[in-house]
Specification:
about 375 residues, alpha/beta, DNA polymerase, domain 1, Rossmann fold, Arc Repressor Mutant, subunit A, 3-stranded antiparallel β-sheet, 15 helices, 14 strands
Length: about 375
């Protein structure tokens, strides 16, 4: 974990390049041991970036050590994208975080998930509807996702707690900073039955530029996004826009034409960026939750086969690379992304790509959306 965390702290690397470096080098530790010349062989890693990685390695490792000490003291989990508890709903998005920090007991991979967002200046109309819709949603046992902000967000969290539903709060800061501070008690309650999450390390403050990233986490972690109240501009509409890009079902509560904090919702409905939301029946109709007799294993919209994977013995006659790939996919539960396969099998990405093609031709694996592979 030390090297993975340190990799996330290298300057000018970012989540996408961090994943590329791990995939092509085989592990985060190897990134810290290879010379700059070899690092430049990784796609998108030029000489300047490679030189910067080498120059800042020691500093990144020291910072990572301090972060791990704080995480242990504050009982915070650090989940890289290769971890089994990392949110499966994130995996098919190009802007998936390299890792997230999590504090709390709830799994981030609940079968159903509803994000509820809205204005910080919520009216009784919006707050009452939020409480009522969560009460109605209880029969589906979803996790309720929001951003811990004033107004609709905090109403969503508190209503979820009241209904004994797991609730997830995505923060725009490190988990050592609760913003707004007035919601610290609610944040502590959330950790008992839900979780706080962030992609920012300890010590990072809630700057304005972080909130769109926070909104991205909310949208990605949900199956359904509800906008309870929103002005014509604001974070709730940003979340709705991102959710639409991600292919989520977006709903908006309509309001009177003279209500400032219904203008955004009305606009979403008018421009066909959100379904009309009047009651839980609208969600039942669009999401078809009322017709689901059994909830499938969830992998961002992909139904993961519950069929037991082939026994390892059946793969013994395969070439070495294919056998290793089959074993890591099997160990992971039958489905794995290509970059994770490369890391876990400790093989170069180029070799993994060729082997996967051969295995698919042999009908040993099936390619799924988002460059994921499943044993047949």
């Amino acid at each position: 974990m030390l090297y993975i965390l340190a990799l996330s702290m290298l300057p000018n690397v970012g989540s996408k390049n961090a994943k590329l470096l791990m995939s092509y080098c085989g592990s985060a530790e190897k990134v810290f041991k290879l010379p700059a010349g070899k690092l430049t062989r990784v796609p998108n890693i030029g000489k300047l970036t490679a030189d910067a990685i080498v120059a800042h390695r020691e500093d990144a490792l020291k910072r990572a050590e301090k972060q791990l000490q704080i995480a242990e003291k504050q009982q915070v989990q650090i989940l890289p994208y290769t971890h089994e508890d990392f949110p499966q709903r994130f995996r098919n998005h190009d802007d998936m975080p390299f890792l997230i920090f999590k504090k709390g007991k709830a799994s981030l991979n609940q079968p159903r998930s509803v994000a509820i967002v809205g204005t910080r200046k919520a009216t009784d109309y919006g707050k009452n509807f939020t409480a009522d819709i969560i009460k109605d949603l209880k029969k589906y046992k979803p996790m309720i996702v929001s951003g811990l902000a004033y107004g609709i967000d905090i109403q969503a969290h508190r209503s979820a707690l009241q209904q004994e539903l797991p609730t997830i709060a995505a923060l725009a800061s490190g988990l050592d900073t609760i913003y707004p501070a007035a919601h610290k008690n609610t944040a502590e309650q959330i950790c008992q039955n839900g979780a706080l999450i962030s992609e920012y390390p300890f010590g990072v403050k809630p700057e304005a530029r972080h909130f769109p990233h926070r909104n991205r986490l909310i949208a990605a972690l949900a199956d359904v996004v509800l906008v309870a109240e929103a002005a014509i501009k604001g974070g709730a509409l940003i979340t709705a826009e991102i959710a639409n890009v991600y292919g989520k079902d977006v709903f908006a509560l309509p309001g009177s034409l003279d209500m400032t904090y219904s203008e955004g919702c009305n606009h979403l409905i008018k421009t066909h960026k959100a379904h009309l939301l009047t009651s839980i029946s609208d969600i039942d109709y669009i999401a078809r939750w009322d017709t689901d007799d059994m909830i499938p294993a969830h992998n961002n919209g992909i139904e993961v086969s519950t069929t037991k994977p082939k026994k390892t013995a059946l793969f013994q006659e395969l070439p070495e690379s294919e056998r290793r790939i089959a074993q890591v996919i099997q160990t992971a539960g039958g489905t794995l992304a290509i970059d994770e396969i490369a890391i876990k099998a400790e093989l170069p990405m180029s070799e993994v790509s060729v082997a996967l093609f051969q295995m698919e031709f042999k009908d040993l694996i099936k390619a799924l959306p988002g460059k994921q592979y499943q044993l047949t």
